[in-house]
Predict the 3D structure of the following.
Amino acid sequence: MENILASLCGTSPEDPLPVWVRGSVGHCFNQLTLSVIPHVILAVVSACFLGTPRSGSDVPCRPSWGWRIATSFLLAGLFLADTIPATISQQELGPVYLEVLANGTAAVTWLVHGFALFMLCRSIHGFTRGPAALALLTLSPLPSFIITLVWYCQSGTAWSPAHPGASSRFAILCLQLASLLAYVVSYLFPTAGRQHFLSINYSWQQDQPISEPGIPVPDPQRVAEDGESWLSRFFYTWMNPLMERGYQQKLNQPQDVYVLPHQLQTARVCDRFYSCWQKKVALQQAEEETVSLTSPVIAGGEGSSDAPDSPHHAQEAVRFLSVLHAAFGLRFYTLGLLKLADSLLDFSGPLLLNLLVNFMESRQEPLSHGILYALGLFAGSFLGALLRSQFRYEMNKMALMVRAAVISAIYRKALRVSSTSLARFTVGEIVNFMSTDTDRLINFCQSFHELWSLPVQLAITLYLLYQQVGVAFLGGVALALLLVPINKIIANRIMVNNEKMLKHKDTRVKLMTEFLCGIRVIKFYAWEKHFSTRIKSCRAKELQKLRAVSYLDALCVYMWAALPVVVSIAIFVTYVLLGHQLTATKVFTALALVGMLILPLNCFPWVLNAILEAKVSLDRIQQFFELMDQDLEAYYALDSPSDTATAMEMQCAAFSWVPVEDKSTRQPSSTGTLQLHIENLSVRKGMLLGVVGKVGSGKSSLLAAITGELIKQGGRVYVCDLEQGFGLATQEPWIQFTTVRKNILFGREYDARLYEEVLEACALSEDLNILPASDQTEVGENGVTLSGGQKARIALARAIYQEKELYLLDDPLAAVDADVANHIMRKCIFGVLKHKTRVLCTHRTEFLEKADALLLMDNGRIVKTGTPADILPLVEAFPKFKDTDKEHKDKAPNEQEQEEAIKTEAEEPTQNNNLIHKEEEKKEGAVAFQVYKAYWMAMGSYLAISILFSLFLMQASRNISDWWLSYWISSISQTANTSVMACSASLPSPELLLFSTAGLVSPIQDLDKTPGPPNGSVDVNFYLIVYGSIAGANSLFTIIRAFLFAYGALRAAAVIHDRLLQRVLKATVTFFDTTPTGRVLNRFSSDLYCVDDSLPFILNIFLANIYGLLGMLVIMTYGLPWIGLVLLPLAVVYFFIQRYYRFTSRELKRLCSVTLSPIYSHFSETLSGLSTIRAMRATKRFELENQLRLEQNQRCLFASNTVMEWLDIRLQMIGVAVVTAIAGIAIIQHQKQLGNPGLVGLALSYALSVTNLLSGLIASFTHTEMLMVSVERTEEYTTDIPMEPQDKLVQVSADWPSEGLVEFQQVVLAYRAGLPNALDGVSFTVYPGEKLGIVGRTGSGKSTLFLALFRMVEMKSGLILLDGVDSQLVGLEELRSRLAIIPQDPFLFSGSIRENLDPQGKQTDAELREVLEQCHLWDAVTQMGGLDSELGERGKSLSVGQRQLVCLARALLTQAKVLCIDEATASVDQKTDQLLQQTIRQRFADKTVLTIAHRLNTILDSDRVLVMQGGRVAELDSPARLSQKDGSLFQHLLHSRQQ
């Protein structure tokens, strides 16, 4: 290389590139390094912009572009011109070849640059100045120009006639400088006027990407990546505007993110996928046909029954994987090439490092070799970084494509599957296909390439190790392989414990759910302590398993951390024992290689695991895709009957809910399923057909048969206008999670006249007035915020608004009261729909008198058809019917009241906004310091400090062991240099070492006795022992740190949970009313899971990364102090990059999760409403909606993934800079004879891992921040929840209240500040032993009286006295435990009957039995298996009435002097009710009883009646007097009931 340079420059080979010649910069150095290299870089960067696509608009460029293009071409010409005098007048300035090389490079560069500018000018950059980097690079050759200019002036050859060649070259040089100046000026001064900008904006509007209507396209919304230059693609500069936005915190909704690149857009991906699917199906069918032709037996064997099913069999056989393969396979495999190149480049680092350290040790090699190695290190790490980044980026895109295809395919399949076969899976399972299983498939995409690349890496690494240390490598590898089975055993134990832990966690969350659902009752009974102990015992079991998991995990981490050290020690020991000499190069290269060996070994189990999981998921999805589709063509007869007036007819049709093939397999279960046989049914257009029959007679199944949801086993079904679909209102109304108006419109255009008409017909107008935002009110999931009647009517309204011809109405009148039912019959069924064909199933036969015909169904058959006059008497004669009907009538007014109550409850929290509950606060920006402090305190300061200290010791010992190696090597190389002698002679025989009992120690003593050679193996042994002991210490510190950390994290988890639980137990009832249960549960389930499990894991990695980075910096600056100059600017760059990244990444992660849940909720909503969606023929629209939601989420995911790559490539570049800088500094030091090869090797081997550490640090920090949010949320509840007053100001006697005297004095109470008073100055007295009935309209404050008495809500003013003691002064628990209450909704928790009656365990069995007998429950209890039999969740093994009785039994047990009864009428039949009243009268004869009554007859025999109105006492007197008194409210209530 020196010789080449010397001949090119005409210098001596000893110093080929002199920097300083005769007082100025050497010409050769000037031309090569200051002219050729900058020009080459400019050429490469310009070339990257050659592929820039044109923009659609024909806007003229700014004039400045023209100037720059012209000067570029002019400069190219000038450089070419310069070669002519250079070749003619040889050797005047420099050797010919050098000049030709320099000028040729420059000419080519400026040509390329000119073309690049031309392309840029025609692209989107045309109305900007273009990329700034390009303009800056054009200035890089400037120093060379100036140096040459100065040289001319100094030498005086500029204008001398004696040197015509030189003077012409000088002229050309001046012209070149002038052109460059013109270029810079035209770049700096834009000359475009205002008009241009306007026209540009105009052209943008024409050229906007099409997006969905209603979503504004923000400032010409960029399509990601499409149309970017190579440079921009490699370094993701097209992400910069987005990063800028994220940094300014302007990323608030999914629309702020780039549109997906063209090839990733969901619609395109799906089209491609489905076309592949179609091809596969066609192939399959073709194959099947050829098979059936060759074997006619198969075709004819089954007869014709198989004909309609034939397409399905073909479809069944299509493997989902093969379709994915056909659609995405080619692209997926080609990515493997990138991976391969990257894997091979990974090895360049250690090998070049080896060569470089060799070069420094030998001091014999020429300098050029060192420079080459340094350049090689640069090129290898640079290219490796680009390839790795591109591979990951393309892989992410691939995964997004697969995800889009799989999710939309599953959705599409769900819409097409027949409901009967869909019933095999639960909704939860099917949603799981879309979430978990799809995620696993995507993980497989990543794992597949690892599966082949890891063995390749392993093989190469082992081969290189063998090259370095020969057979010795087997010692280390054997150790590493030994650890694999051990790891597997530990992993299995972790799995087992994890499963158990999750079981305990589920139990705890279930308990928590029960606790939150029954919070009012628990507070009434003062049972918080009991629940607290139950939850805590569950938590203790959970923590016990968590402890096992954590400690096993710590062991795993320890082995993983200690492995490299142990393996390398094993290798070195073996190597030395085999009688070889260790050298610096050997040690360092081996260390680097061992590091590379560990990763594949550790990854492999995970990769296999991911692949097995993907296989399981794929099989599950495959099963789902093999379900039968609904085949309407085979189901319905297409030929219309002779009579054109027929709307629908069935002949000899038989239907079933279970497919035929399933029946043989599931004989026992299928006997219970209903078969439907319709001999002959014909419905004329425009008639109203009523369908009646007892419960379970097949009315709903008949409607399902009409819409095609059942399996037809034979016969003929005809429906007129099939494409149009049906107007269907199902029995359980299906409501979407959106506004009321959108629910009714259901995808149709808004037509004001029709809409009003429909609302009026369905009696919805006044309901909408009550709702906070009228028809723009959000309805909760499945319509939770509406009452049953409102849901039914909205579903009905939706059906009517669709304007179909055939209406199927399944008992829309069940949930509404009599007035509304009349209104609907009159205005809707005989009003808006009077010309349509209607099939109405109902139990309320009184409304069917005007029907055109009735069907009476029983057991799946039509028993009789006829006019209402024929059929209705029969129905009335059915004894079951009378009951149900009367029950309906009884229930109606009561239900109406319940509905009102529900409405008022719904109204309460929503005074100011139309969404149901207060929005959950989302903390913006970074996590506050307080949160970290809270976690620190939860862990305990001493513990936290000791953890940090053990971390420090671990890192220090690790770095010291590395330093010791380098020290040892330097001393070896020094002794080797001073006394060059055969060191191997000084080694003791390997046998001696191997067979001595004390291993390495004893030979040393022997050697001490025998005078050995000066630098003999005593040294080696001494160094090895020190190295081994440092490594041992490191190992010890590692294990201490691992276990301390596990212990600390467990302690923090325990403390955080206990604090949270204590606080929630003491929270006020108001808090639970305004906070959805789910939100509190979230704190106890997912947030605590983070604190238990995810947070410690990530925090551990984060701390290790911080310490690792610090250790690395210390070693690097110790080895090469000059590197500090490079590290400081890089640190600043790193700081800004990571800050930029964290802001954007956090916002994008949030957007990802915000856009993800709509996909799943929309899917589960679709599944629950499948019959409605299909009947109304809305499947296409729902598929599109799913695609839009998916597209939104994919946009955010894509951006989030790309941001990671944006960061990664920048960090990799920092790493490349560090490596190159170290190599360069090392070479310079070597030249100056300063370097210590050992330390340089150490610094370089650390530098090679710098990028992984930097990106690991940022990733773990952002992740820790995200998980810290969980601590923040639990902290928010432990500090901010309003608490019930805990103080006791008065000590009361054990039997208080002994009399039972209750006095209210001017009580004023409001539920929350800002709400009207619920009690407004209430005063009355209840005397001991008196029975007081309380009545009043809904919302008059009846129940509030009890809340005030039990201090569930604190009063604003006034007093409540019990036996003369102010209840405000008594401790809450005492107060509540001395009063008894029977609440309106009976609350039971899972556990035994004994626990439910007496959670504190104070009563004897005899007492419990006596009470149960008095409540007429003992028989039921003995049937269930006695007092210790389990009740199930919320007591579901008892009927509602029995639950009510259990609550009465509880009240009987309390022996309290004051009993409050909030009477629940709906759940108990008349007979039981009388028994209840009787028991209460007997048992509470001498006690004070307050009863809130809904059925007035229950309080007619009470001593006095209190009538409430608007939060005040309206009347208080005996029932007899009040009913006599004219105009009294009580009398009015009595009359309205009797009507």
About this structure: The chain has 54 helices and 21 strands. The CA atoms of residues 1040 and 1343 lie 60 Å apart. The mean pLDDT is 80.
